[in-house]
Amino acid sequence: MVRAAALLALSAGAAGCGAPPATLGECAALADPAAADACALDLALPLVDDPPALAAALATLPSAAARDLLLLRLAVHRPTRAGPICALVETPGAREKCQQVLGRPHLGSTPRPPVPE
């Protein structure tokens, strides 16, 4: 919630209006790179389970590098969906990083409670 409020404030200042970015392309246009990345991740996370919607949203990003960076962040945040996410990456470097995420299945597991002493 705090992150969304910060994005709203940043986008209002950057765009000169009160509307937050509605597309990944609009997020990419934010002047602050950290805010642009956070904005894109916030908009893309709900689309992970809807591949056609995710693909359409990714198409609004300006470059393969921007798309791949977001896809890698999505794979890390949603490791149980990393396979289909990683299938969308375009560059060799991103493919390599996705293989690292896929090689760490414990990222998607539920943490075990501590063992009492």
Q: What does the secondary structure layout of this molecule look like, with pairings?
A:
Elements: H1 2-15, H2 24-28, H3 33-44, H4 51-58, H5 64-77, H6 82-86, H7 92-102
Helix pairs in contact: 1-3, 5-7
Word description of this protein:
The protein has 117 residues and is mostly helical. The protein has one domain. It has 7 helices and no strands. It has helices spanning 2-15, 24-28, 33-44, 51-58, 64-77, 82-86, 92-102. Helix 1 packs across helix 3 (33-44) and helix 5 (64-77) runs parallel beside helix 7 (92-102). Mean pLDDT is 81; it is low at 1-15.
Short summary of the structure?
This protein has seven helices and no strands. It has helices at 2-15, 24-28, 33-44, 51-58, 64-77, 82-86, 92-102.
Percent of residues in beta strands: under 5%
H-E string: HHHHHHH
Q: What is the count of distinct domains?
A: 1
Q: What class would the helix/strand composition place it in?
A: mainly alpha
Distance from N terminus to C terminus (CA atoms, Å) equals 37 Å
Provide the low-confidence segments as ranges: 1-15
Using the alpha-carbon principal axes, give the shape.
globular
Helix segment count?
7
Q: State the helical fraction.
A: 55-70%
Overall average pLDDT: 81
Gyration radius, rounded = 16 Å
Task: Give the tally of β-strands.
Answer: 0
The biggest beta sheet is recorded as:
none
